[in-house]
Amino acid sequence: MSTSLSRALVATGAAAGLALLASGTAAAHVTADAPGAAQGGYAVITFRVPTESATASTTKLTVALPQLSAARTEPVPGWTAKTEKNDKNQFTSVTWTANPGSPGITPEQFQRFALAVGPLPKQDKISFPATQTYSDGKVVNWNEPMPAGGDEPEHPAPSVTLAAAGSEHDHAAGMSSETDSDESDSDNTARWLGGIGLVLGALGAALGLGSLIRSRRA
């Protein structure tokens, strides 16, 4: 499981940065991004949190999770992360809180919070309702579902779209199996050639010794 999460972290870093540059009209919203995330797999979800207030800083963010078996936070300087579980030991939420003395996310700034999670639900899209708290006590709930068509709601819930289950995994497994087969064939060929070489070497040594003995007798 840790290997899967580590690979997901490495694979999504650059793509997440590009997605932030292309955020467009959603720049003022709390958003989620998870490049390459697939149903039933592991992924790194990056939450982008801008401060919309002109006078207060963001000091806390709570994100609801869809009862996941694994959830690991990435250390963020000046912030403390805490996860919550239900009675089935499933992760149900994560909260990032600015440490005492930390300015939090000041006006006209944003912060990214990364979370490695899995296995993801086997559905096309998942939402992560979020609660953003400001230093002046204001609370903004980002929990409105995105409509199938029409205008975006005022406070949409962060969400990610998941690829079909197994597509990339099966391809990777096939590549691994093919590689293992090629390596096995190469190994067997090398052993056969090595064995033939030893036999020929022994035969040559025997013929040479026989010639030497005959020459001495003559």
From TrEMBL:
Gene3D superfamilies: Uncharacterised protein YcnI-like PF07987, DUF1775
Keyword Translocase among record annotations: no
Residue span(s) of domain YncI copper-binding: 29-162
Keywords carried by this UniProt record: Membrane, Signal, Transmembrane, Transmembrane helix
Transmembrane spans: 192-213
Extent of the signal sequence: 1-28
One Pfam family it belongs to: DUF1775
InterPro entries documented for this protein: YcnI-copper_dom, YcnI-like_sf
Residue ranges, annotated region (Disordered): 137-188
Keyword Nucleotide-binding listed: no
Protein known as: YncI copper-binding domain-containing protein
